[in-house]
Specification:
mainly alpha, 67% helix, elongated, 83 residues
Amino acid sequence: MASNNVASLNTLTSLRFVFAVFVFLSHLTLVQFPEGKGLNLPAVFSEGFIGVSFFFILSGFILTHVYKEQFSNSAKTKSVIFF
């Protein structure tokens, strides 16, 4: 893998981390403390499902990019498994 590809994957991996933190913070908005008050975070964190979607989309892209050679080689040598 060329260093340019590694740099772009590191950037995407960092972006995955940002979305994971976003999801974590959105879960913190659901926490109720003994006083009955939740955390007072900005309203954007109530939309945690957006972070989950982007996290899994980026994860799928990164996995496909990293293992695409192995996927193409295994498809040529193995028979197709029918479900």
